[in-house]
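Appendix B, Record 12. Input sequence as logged:
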Amino acid sequence: MTLAASAGLLLARGDRTAQIAAATVIGTCNRLSEIRTPYGRDGADQMTAVITQYRALTALIPDQRVSDDLFLRAVNFQAGLSYAVSGVAKAFGSSWVQGDALLEVLQTEAYGRGPAAALLRTYPRLCRALTVGTVVWEASFPLIYLLPRKQATQVLRAVKAFHVGVATAMELPRFVWGFFGSHGAVGYVLETRGAPRTFEKTVVGIAGGVTLTSALIARDKRRIAEQRRTGPKGAARLELGDGQVEYRVDRPADEAAAGPVIVLECGLGQSLESWEWVAQSLARHHTVIRYHRPGYGLTTSRAAGGDILAAVLDEAGAEGEVVVVTHSIGSLSAASYVRDERFAGRVGRLVVVDGTDPVLLEEDRTDRRRLGKFLQAQLYTLVAAVTGIYEWAPNAVERQAGYTPDTQYSHVQFVFSPRNIVNSVREYREMRTDDAVSRLGAVESVLVVASDEYAEQQAVLAEKLGAKYQVVRGSGHRSIIGYRDHAEQVEGAIRRFLDAS
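Logged structural output:
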């Protein structure tokens, strides 16, 4: 049916009704194909669907001139958006920015078997230049509308050459026809730049208005979350050196019968609330202390970890044995103070929940690809935070956390706070790893609780620390303390560890 309609579309030049009918058939078949093959379509299929479906929809407008004008402007806008979004998306991909993506693609079975691909593989520098160049030209494609007509035409020809190159190297001829079909609409808009552009102004105005509204809503929600922190039900604060430290203490009903004090160290960029399920359970029999490290939440002090913990313990009146429980990079924060002479004889037990292996962190920080991937992930999170996208689209934080509504609200707003995101990058870059394994392993009794996601990696860490080892099946790095059933298993492992010790 698609082939027949395509032939009819070509043969019906000048017959608007027949072309619209053929476009409707092609668009319908495209949608049905998406249902049949739900694993996704490529960019050429998507652009073909856009063109044919826009043509069918705009045909509902009785005025032929208005209908055709709206159709061409809509396809033009989609073409410009497709190129720009593709470029921006690639800018968030480490292999694209590092210049390795094209070479990696050409080494695959699906796209690297052609003679052109084999030729390009022999010129890795050229591949890197083409990779970075693709990111630049796609992201800057909208600038074509600012160029004089002659230069804009030359740019469109260069884009056509790009698609021909893709088709030749990766053996994807669909990309030629799929995107060439939109260039006529781009040319139409370039030719009519002097005419009123109500459609473009409307679309840009709506998009800008929605983005601004989203950003303002997100900012207000973050302000509300911060006000809650400073309210009577929020965390406590103490003055220390050049600033304040935000902390929280949960105590058992019978403090006289309480066991050792438990200190909970948060993961990278995570809030006090991330420990909520674990803290609630442990606080039945222990004094539980949580605090924010420098730069997070309301903690403005830049004091060292040992100084902060000593001040919090003193302020809370917590005496006797201290058990440190860490999540993620919090294990390296604990490594900075567990052998501190101020805690000598106090920290005899340590629980590492999905801890950061210092060797792997150091490898990640010194490898340009891995570091680039981390920084780009943080940049993506920062963009989502500033624009408020996280409020309207599913995000990893909410998918791997299921606290009570108020706690979930505070935790999500904390993680998507631009200041906390920037601070997490600083902490990632500056966190000390030297002798961390020996310092953590020197604690008398250590338990490693691993998520299913990083079970093998944590088994290696447990062996390095000479620690006992347990896996929470079905859990992820965040959900191990974010989902109640996973957190209960963590709390149970901690309780059994303390009883056995």
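The first helix runs from residue 2 to 11.
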